[in-house]
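Support reply, case 0932

Customer input (verbatim):
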Amino acid sequence: MNLPDIKKINIAFYTLDFKTSGVFKIISTLSQNIPSDYNLHIFVSDEHDENFIPAFKVAGEIHYFNIKGPSSRNPLKKMYKNYMRKKLLKKYKSDYNIDLTVTFSENPNLHNIVTRQNDKIVICVHNYTSINIAEDIKNRLYSFMYNRLIKKYFNRADKIVTVSSGIKTDLVSNFGMNKDLIEVLYNPHDIKRIEEMSDKELPAEYKYIFENRFSIINIGRISTQKGHWHLIRAFKTVKQQIPEAILIIIGEGKKELTDLLSTLISDLELSKDVVFLNFQTNPYVFMKNADIYAASSIFEGLPNVLIECMACGTPVISTDCRSGPREILAPKTDFSYVTDIIEKTEFGILTPPLGRDILNSSVPITKEETLLAEAMIMLYNDKETRSSYSNKGKLRAAEFNIENTIRNYDRLFKKVLEQ
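Our regenerated output:
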C-alpha cells in the first residue's frame, strides 16, 4: 500500500549576504537543524563571489539574486539597490511557492513585509532598535526614514520575533508595536558543538599570548556598537594593577575605527599588551583559554558571545546595556533595571552602561570605565568567584541549547501558518 505524500512546507530565509555576523550564524544554525517537514530555501540578495568561503555552513537550497554594486551611503544608490532587492524577492517568493518567509535584520525585514505574496511573514529583531537607529549618526535622513518605516510596516507582519524581552519592550514603547504580535525567542546555540570545539588544542602560533598572562578576551566585529575604546581605556587601569594582564580582541571592522583604536592603544602605551586577531573559525578554543571575558557594548539585542563564553566555562563581565546581558546573567531580576555599580549577579558581573562618544587618550577615564576596570581586577583577585561563575555559567548556557530553540521556532512557524 502506498501512503500519500505529505506536502512539505516551503519556507524561505532571506538575507542580504553571507558575511560573518551574528545574524548569519543564526541562519546557519537554524538551517542545519530545521525539522524535515520544511523545504528550506535561502534567498541571498547581493552579488555572489565564487571565491568567498562563508564562515558557517548553511543547509537548504541557496538562491543568489546577484544584485551588483557595493554598499553605499548615497540615498539614491541605496534606494535603487533596495528596489532591486524587493523586486527579485517578490519574484522568488512566487517562483518557489513560498509558504512562509523569515528575515533576521533591519532591511530584509522591511523587504519581506512589502513583498508579501501568498506567504506568511515572520520578522526577527536582533538589536535594541531605538538605540540602533540613533547610532546611524552619519546619515540622519536614513535614521529618520527607518524610524518611520518601522512604525508603518512592522505591525503588518504575521509575527515579530525578538531575541530578548528588552527588545520587545522597546518596540512596544517606542514604535507602537502590537505586543500580542511579538514573541520572545532566544537565539539557538549548539552547546555540544561549542564544548567540543573549545576542547581542541589552541593553534601553536597563539599559545604565547596566554602563557603566564592574565588573559581578558573580547570577541565580535569592530564597530561603534561594541565600544572597544572604552574597554581599552579601562584596560589601562587594569594593567597598572595587574602587570601580567593582556587584552585579546578578536574581530574585524572598518579601517577608520580599527585605525582609531590602534592610535588609542599606542597613545596609552599598551602596544605590547593589547592583541588584535582577525576572525577565527574556532573562537571557542580562545574563549576557553582566556581567564575572563569582558564586554563593553553600548547596546545589544541578546549577545550570543556571552552565552558561548559561558558554555566554554569562561567567567563573564558585561555592561548592563539595553538589552540582553541582564536577561542572560541575571534572569531573576527586573530586566528594566539598570545598575550604577558593579553588580555581582547569579551568572556573571554587570557594570553600568557606557557612553556613545568615542574617547581618545587625552580624556580622563570615566566613572563607568573605572567600574569596568575594577570588575576585571576584582575577578583577578577572587579565584573562588571565577571558579563559581565558570561552573554556573555552563549550567546557564545549557538553557539556550538548540533543541529548545528549534522546538519553539517550529511551534511558532506552524502556528503562523494556521492563522
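We compared this against your earlier run and they match. Two observations from our side: The longest strand covers residues 38-46. Residues 10 and 39 are 5 Å apart (CA to CA). Please reopen the case if you see a mismatch on your end.
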